[in-house]
Specification:
The structure holds two protein chains of two kinds. Chain A is mainly α. Chain A has 14 helices and no strands. Chain B folds into two domains: 236 residues, Rossmann fold (3-Layer(aba) Sandwich), CATH 3.40.50; 180 residues, Rossmann fold. In chain B, helix 14 packs parallel to helix 15. The chains are: A mainly alpha, B alpha/beta. Bound molecules: adenosine-5'-triphosphate and magnesium ion.
Chain lengths: 338, 513
């Protein structure tokens, strides 16, 4: 097997190896691994509801995964998905709540989406500009921006936008809500899966087309692979760095639509619950390829919801360990010399 | 006498490419043995097989009479085989001594290094073979020629008895080349065995005892150097007779395209790199710039392409078609109809991870013809790549899927030359070392294309360290020395000199040293 074909199997190998490790861990915790796996399956893909729950998680993970994968192609590591998502969720919730009820859905939903994208984009662009203007490493700036986003969102929520005597914002208007897949087709009964899923699949496809078919994607990849050669070819890497960080922020922001317009209909503390960070794992498992992001997000969606569902039998932490192990194995296999 | 290296029916395939097939040769101890051949003939692959970087698919190998198989370069080094790569592998921030010592530190974790003693040993070694270099200097301060000495010292320090050098002279000045050859001769006299790969047939005849010609992975012949000639070797390599100097019909220069006026450049740290440089290039002429490394040509080239360090100070003007282009960026300059082949193709002209086809439009990817609707028109790109590949004889079976990095060195250069010469509406062509590392068949063809572009009316600026290349192609030649143009040889002087041959080359050489 050549090095190139081997690369395609790395994610599968990693998932398989992590599954084996988890079986050992489950056995150590005194449970029968096969029983747990069966319960996991029953709680998820065996029912429409379970499948819907997994898909709901998958949807946000696709967006936050793309938000890491796109900058990755320009050799930028966007750790800021969480902060971008958080501010976007707040922005979408506030916009949805403020819009007068006379605004029809055809305008209200795009407006909420725009607000979410704008909030994420500003946060992403900040990291991009800090890098281009002042040479600040984007890993450090996005981590710091996460803290700022967390604090700002908390402050704005408690001091300004929370409903009196609650810890969430006013519910958004009906016009800004997105229909559940259940309501449209009767599939995934009762689950929060909503049509943002289709938007996520569209986004992954667009990202792939952009990267591998368009001029912008070609230039972006060149900047990532050989920045000096890109400069000689007249490609301005600074523009690309700013642009891709802005787009990444906007894409992470779209993930908020799934949470706010599609499900909760308001913003509350903890709504984004680590989706931004899991997006890093999704992107790494997918080798930063926009189309592989979809199955990778599905895998992590399965672990996140499945972990909750079998929480009565084994500690949920085991599934967090599996997530982390998968990524470590991917990295080790990728680094291995052939 | 004993054989230092003996290969029997060695083969190596990369996928469907037979990089080496059935190669047999034996090299006497103490001999200087040359391998020549077209780009992609398998020379580097052969060298890497002997050095343990690749493992053969078939055949056997003997070193100093005993059969060996190398799993890695470590094994080869242990058996006394050392290799100097074309692209140096030194750590720029470490000193010469530290680089030479790298990997040889005492194995126990907390034992201290003994740099003083090692530095002294390295000084001794360098003096013994006439390769003066300061053991305590950081590698980043060395010239290319000195870096190469460090690479050789590294090999000698590990007690190598067999030295493999892959295209060692490609980046050297003529003087440095002479010095290198003196070193190699003295090493051979001591009983060390030298295997050298090169494209320069003059060097083979001047240096080696025996030469093997390779073509498409196989050995076409092995000859003693006394009994052969440049023409014969060229014919064996390419399979036809090669014009060693391209025909250069009289040019007909027209209006001035590029004028460089009193150009000066001082780095941010205050070093004067260029001073009062003035020359002009006209449509339909080739203006050659002769100069050895470090005399300002790199700075001149980056200024012309708008990529100089903006912290430095620029004075004077660069006027292209009547307007000043100092301060413009590469995309704007290219947009005016300027093509550029940079000195360092691996670093500046290609993306090794992109496919060959994608590299054939690199820097020209904004052209409308490659686009359709929202993205690239893949068919148009592939069609164009095939067309260029055919015209320039680029050896590659699958342009769409082969990464450029898998091509042989010379074929990579051909991709760059093809792309830049074929730029539509090209008015000015800036060429730096356009034939570095390409075989003589390809040199003939690249030279023809350059003359062709000139005759179609392009203005051409040619920077080269190969004096015979400059003489063969140029209409006029400027001699760049320590940042200034010391002398411009007129059209008459150059065409006269072309007939005079060797004496003119020497005269030109003197004006740049
Ligand atoms: N790592 C690799 N993977 C795939 N193909 C390779 C690899 N290395 C070399 N090749 C192919 O093997 C053939 C021989 O390459 P090699 O580098 O040995 O040529 P060469 O004689 O050194 O040429 P040049 O004079 O241009 O340096 C070429 O067709 C090249 O594309
Ligand atoms: Mg080679």
């Amino acid at each position: 097997m050549t090095a190139r074909t081997f690369r395609y199997f790395i994610p599968l190998l990693a998932v398989a190896a992590a599954a084996l490790c988890s079986m050992a861990l489950i056995a150590l915790s005194g449970r029968d691994p096969f029983m747990i796996f069966e319960k996991l399956f029953r709680a998820t893909f065996a029912s429409g509801y379970g499948t819907g729950q997994v898909l709901f998680k998958t949807t946000t993970l696709i967006f936050t995964g793309l938000a890491v994968a796109l900058p990755f192609k320009a050799r930028l590591f966007n750790i800021g998905g969480e902060g971008q998502l958080q501010l976007a969720a707040l922005a979408a919730a506030i916009t949805g709540a403020l819009l007068p009820s006379s605004v029809p859905p055809i305008a209200a939903v795009p407006l909420a989406a725009l607000a979410a994208m704008a909030a994420g984009a500003i946060w992403g662009a900040s990291a991009g500009l800090l890098k281009v203007r002042f040479g600040v490493n984007e890993v450090i700036s996005t981590i710091m921006l996460n803290f700022i986003a967390q604090a700002a969102a908390g402050y704005l929520l408690t001091r300004r936008f929370a409903e009196p005597s609650t810890e969430h914002t006013t519910e958004i208007g009906r016009a800004s809500m997105l229909p559940k897949i259940d309501e449209l087709s009767g599939l995934f009964t009762g689950s929060p899966a909503n049509i943002t899923l289709l938007l996520a699949l569209g986004a992954a496809l667009c990202a792939a087309l952009f990267l591998f078919r368009s001029r912008g994607g070609y230039e972006l990849r060149a900047v990532g692979l050989q920045p000096e050669a890109a400069a000689w070819a007249g490609i301005r890497s600074g523009h690309h760095v700013t642009a891709v960080m802005t787009v990444a922020g906007a894409v992470a922001g779209l993930g908020a639509l799934n949470l706010v317009s599609g499900y909760k209909h308001y913003y509350e503390a903890g709504l984004t619950g680590g989706f931004g960070f899991s997006g890093i794992a999704v992107a790494l498992l997918a080798g930063a390829h926009p189309l592989w992001i979809v199955p990778a997000a599905l895998f992590f969606g399965l672990l996140e919801y499945g972990g909750l569902a079998v929480g009565a039998y084994v500690p949920k932490d085991i599934f967090m360990i599996i997530q982390a192990l998968t990524i470590l194995i991917v990295i080790v296999l990728n680094a291995r010399k052939l | 006498m004993q054989n230092a290296i003996r290969l029997t029916a060695i083969s190596k395939n990369f996928g469907t490419v037979k990089a080496c097939s059935n190669v047999s040769l034996s090299i006497r101890s103490g001999a200087i043995y040359a391998v020549v051949g077209e780009n992609g003939a398998g020379k580097s692959t052969l060298a890497r097989l002997i050095y343990g970087m690749h493992q053969p698919d078939g055949g056997s190998m003997e070193i100093n009479g005993s059969p060996v198989t190398f799993a890695s370069p470590g094994d080869a080094i242990a058996a006394g085989v050392g290799m100097v790569h074309q692209h140096f592998m030194l750590v720029p921030t470490l000193t010469v001594t530290e680089n030479v010592m790298l990997g040889l530190e005492k194995q126990s974790l907390f034992s201290t290094l003994d740099p003083k003693n090692s530095a002294e040993n390295i000084r001794q070694l360098s003096l013994k073979y006439g390769m003066a270099v300061d053991p305590l200097a950081p590698v980043s301060t060395l010239s290319v020629g000195q870096e190469q000495r460090v690479e050789i010292l590294k090999v000698l320090y590990r007690n190598a008895r067999i030295l493999i050098l892959d295209e060692p002279t490609a980046v050297l000045t003529p003087l440095e080349t002479d010095q290198l050859f003196a070193v190699l001769r003295s090493l051979a006299k001591e009983g060390k065995t030298i295997l050298i790969i090169t494209h320069k047939l003059d060097e083979v005849l001047a240096l080696a005892d025996t030469v093997t010609v390779m073509s498409r992975g196989s050995v076409t012949g092995t000859l003693p150097c006394q009994e052969t000639s440049k023409e014969e070797l060229a014919r064996m390599m390419v399979g036809r007779s090669v014009l060693l100097r391209v025909e250069n019909p009289p040019p007909s220069p027209k209006k001035t395209m590029l004028t460089v006026e009193n150009l000066g450049y001082r780095t941010a740290t205050g070093i004067e790199k260029l001073e009062g440089v003035s020359f002009s290039v006209r449509e339909g002429e080739i203006f050659g710039i002769a100069g050895v490394e470090g005399n300002g040509q790199s700075e001149l080239l980056s200024l012309l392409w708008g990529l100089h360090d903006r912290n430095g100070r620029v004075s004077g003007k660069i006027i292209f078609e009547g307007s000043d282009i100092t301060g413009k960026n590469p995309a704007q300059i290219a947009g005016l109809g300027v093509s550029h082949i940079p000195e360092n193709r691996l670093k500046h002209a290609v993306i090794s991870g992109f496919s060959v086809a994608d590299n054939m439009i690199f820097g020209r990817h904004r052209e409308k013809r490659f686009h359709q609707g929202f993205g690239f028109d893949r068919q148009a790109v592939t069609r164009y790549a095939l067309e260029l590949g055919k015209t320039y004889d680029i050896r590659c079976t699958d342009l769409e899927n082969t990464p450029l990095g898998a091509l042989s060195g010379g074929n990579q250069q051909k991709v760059v030359v093809a792309r830049e010469l074929d730029r539509p509406g090209m008015k000015l062509l800036i060429l730096a070392q356009p034939t570095r590392g390409v075989d003589i068949g390809a040199i003939e063809q690249i030279h023809r294309s350059i003359i062709g572009a000139r005759d179609r009316g392009a203005a051409i600026l040619l920077v080269s360290s190969e004096l015979d290349e400059l003489i063969a192609l140029s209409t006029r030649i400027g001699a760049l020395y320590q940042g200034s143009i010391r002398r411009i040889f007129t059209r008459e002087e150059v065409s006269e000199g072309r007939k005079r041959g060797r004496p003119f080359e020497e005269e030109l050489g003197l004006s740049i040293t």
